[in-house]
């Protein structure tokens, strides 16, 4: 995590209230972004407390209607619009037959804060990736039972998680019923108090009007060249931050530099026809690989080639080997050590490489004591 020229590491000016852990709290991530914004005076260029109400093309430019917190509206024309509204605010929930009459409570991981409300309950957690694993582990300390439903589990799955007395793994939910019961695809029927949807988010652009040229279909935003430019509107309209399962901040940085380089005329784009050909080929390749449409923006192992291509476009060096290896080790730990992946590591050599890289670029003043200890 972190921008290339501003590493996400503890700094001398930080006080003791800052979180130095490898997997810090969301407050620490916010503090890092605040540090970055102040360092590079980004906050001076942001119009805060302003809602973008509508964005639409007008005479080869872009009309932007906005409204501030006291209701004053602006109607402005811009040469280009870069959509960077994120995709972790509009929850995606599982579609369950019969859920309309099921009497229990439903929440999304977006709204989860503490386990206390689930005390002595029977809880179903849908999804077994990062948020599902974290929340189920958190809840199991107070809940009567926790049942994880995941489409990645075979349909017959029904097993108690090793080392746990009250956590079971299942396949997905088959149906919900008025008597409070949930039927799983493995045939098990359980009376449930609460369902927690750890099912991710949907891309949502309620302000954007492109006359149907850019759509969201099963969480695939498109057509987009390299996940950024819609060929019909390039370079005047672009998106930053759509891909997931990768080095997010590093990707934001490279995408932003590419958009800036294209808008300034320093880097050309292919013709609209060429871009559409590549987009069509990309969708066909993903389908042939067996990816559902909703995974169109999932990078995974494709992130290295994607980020290196982006870096080449803007004259940046390719992805550092230590950075790629760190991501790999993180995913491996999550898959095999879900209870301890945040606290136990076996990658001291990679951390040494990372800090020595930061030092060589004068991004830090000296190697911290824990890194010096690792070098012994």
Automatic annotation (TrEMBL):
UniProt xrefs under Gene3D superfamilies: FAD/NAD(P)-binding domain
Enzyme Commission code: 1.-.-.-
Keyword set includes RNA-binding: no
Cofactor: FAD
InterPro entries tied to this protein: FAD/NAD-bd_sf, Flavin_mOase, Flavin_mOase-like, FMO-like
Gene Ontology molecular functions: flavin adenine dinucleotide binding; N,N-dimethylaniline monooxygenase activity; NADP binding
Main enzyme class: oxidoreductase
SUPFAM superfamilies documented for this protein: FAD/NAD(P)-binding domain (SSF51905)
Taxon lineage: Eukaryota, Viridiplantae, Streptophyta, Embryophyta, Tracheophyta
Protein name per its UniProtKB record: Flavin-containing monooxygenase
Alphabetized Pfam families for the sequence: FMO-like
Compositional bias annotation for Basic and acidic residues: 11-22
Entry keyword annotation includes Oxidoreductase: yes
Positions of region (Disordered): 1-22
Family of the protein in this entry: Belongs to the FMO family.
UniProt entry keywords in alphabetical sequence: FAD, Flavoprotein, Monooxygenase, NADP, Oxidoreductase
Top-level taxon in the UniProt lineage: Eukaryota
